[in-house]
Amino acid sequence: MEILKQIAQEAEKNTQVPAYPRSVEKVIAAVISTPNFWKVVDLSDEPLPLVAEILKLLNKHGLVVFEGNQILLTEAGNELVKKLGIETFVSHRCSCCNGRGVVIEGSLKEAFEKFLKIQEKRPPAIHQYDQGFVTPENTFARVALADDRGDLRGKNVIVLGDDDLMSIALALSGLPKKVTILEIDERLVNFIKEVSNEYNLNIDARVHDLRQPLPEDVVGAYDTFFTDPPETVEAIKAFVGRGVATLKSERCAGYFGVTRRESSLDKWRRIQKVLLEMGLVITDLLHNFNEYVNWDYYEDMRGWQLTPVKEPPKDIWYKSTQFRVETVRGFKGFNDPIVGDIYNDAESSTT
Ligand SMILES: NCCCCN(CCCN)CCCN
């Protein structure tokens, strides 16, 4: 146990990311089952910068080696695993719903098939706005989840930031009364407008920088919001806080993703405190509900500089937990201008 504590302390000192003996244990447990860096990050569920540092320290202590692009336990590493009784991960994830608790069926399925075709021409994710969209099936699973919770039919729905094309999926489902989207990236707004015209979806799509206060007419005018903010507490305030500011009243819902890839549990605690202070109740937390398609700018992101081996990501490794929140008495949104950096902190790694 001593070595785990020692490596955790050193890793925290070098990265400013909170690290625990369990962080080190989970990285070792991941290395038992995969030599691939991105899969180690995925299985360990620790922030990428911390995983990279822990691997470098394990290597320094002669417990892992980097052979080509593979991360392997040494003889000494295997001894430690035996001595500490470290076990690898076993998944019990439902193969039918992929652990999401919802499936895309009936009328949603037809809309989904249409969406699959439409999204083939979507603008690629760009680094400038920390974009990274989820799989088309995931976008529709979010629609199924919100409909399952009664948050869509006959409701006014707003999407704050939409590289995931939630606005198109929601409109294709035919469930909401009105769909509005605010998005900083003109390429996306133009694409969504074109699709809305072509398919007669009547989407209210506007270019808007969410660091600025909301347009007057959307404040207090919606029943449900969707957003998927960058992973800083500031960004949660900007995107989720503004989402709350768009809601009509108590007992309205919001949906967004929070990841473990760029957020330690210590940061999660700060995020959850911010949510409670806004007068929100967290009703659902669905682990790894969101799966992000690998973006082609990975060599430009900070995380790439930190990785101990330079193997391009192949399978989906970046995932996030889907949060559902609901307003209760005394809730208050956030609609002041945001100054400063909403994209970077010590734990972020894909910006
Ligand atoms: N930079 C690549 C990954 C970004 C994912 N973030 C934005 C996702 C937009 N769809 C944050 C994901 C969790 N909040």
Automatic annotation (TrEMBL):
Keywords: Cytoplasm, Polyamine biosynthesis, Transferase
First-level EC class: transferase
Residue stretches making up the N(4)-bis(aminopropyl)spermidine synthase C-terminal domain: 111-350
Matches recorded under SUPFAM superfamilies: S-adenosyl-L-methionine-dependent methyltransferases
Family the UniProt entry places it in: Belongs to the branched-chain polyamine synthase family.
GO molecular function list: transferase activity, transferring alkyl or aryl (other than methyl) groups
EC number(s) reported in the record: 2.5.1.128
PANTHER family on file: RRNA N6-ADENOSINE-METHYLTRANSFERASE METTL5
InterPro entries noted in UniProt: BpsA (IPR014435), BpsA_C (IPR002723), rRNA_MeTrfase/Polyamine_Synth (IPR051720), SAM-dependent_MTases_sf (IPR029063), WH-like_DNA-bd_sf (IPR036388)
GO cellular component: cytoplasm
Entry function: Involved in the biosynthesis of branched-chain polyamines, which support the growth of thermophiles under high-temperature conditions. Catalyzes the sequential condensation of spermidine with the aminopropyl groups of decarboxylated S-adenosylmethionines to produce N(4)-bis(aminopropyl)spermidine via N(4)-aminopropylspermidine.
UniProt name for this protein: N(4)-bis(aminopropyl)spermidine synthase
Species of origin: Desulfurobacterium thermolithotrophum (strain DSM 11699 / BSA)
Cellular localization per UniProt: Cytoplasm
BP terms from Gene Ontology: polyamine biosynthetic process
CDD domains xref list: AdoMet_MTases (cd02440)
Record pathway: Amine and polyamine biosynthesis
Catalytic activity: 2 S-adenosyl 3-(methylsulfanyl)propylamine + spermidine = N(4)-bis(aminopropyl)spermidine + 2 S-methyl-5'-thioadenosine + 2 H(+)
Chief location category: cytoplasm
